Amino acid sequence: MAELGKTLIILGIIIAGIGITLTFWGKIPFLGKLPGDIVVKKDHFAFYFPLTTSILISVILSLILYLISKIK
After folding, report:
1. Average pLDDT of adjacent 10-residue blocks, the chain of 72 residues
2. Considering the entire predicted model, what is its pTM?
3. Based on the domain organization, do 36 and 65 belong to the same domain?
4. 18/53 same-domain check
């Protein structure tokens, strides 16, 4: 039963982190405008692919999950 409690606490922290990130997403000046993010703008068309931003977020999340697994 204690293991379930620890799991719920970790999930709560992760959900709170996602909520904080979504709240302040527009206020982080460099996120989404990194070199390597692909932006194509034409007359009536805009395509945006945040390649570098996605890689950076993936590395950060992988590091966080690695550290969490080492703590357990």
Report:
1. 84 89 75 83 90 89 88 75
2. 0.58
3. yes
4. no
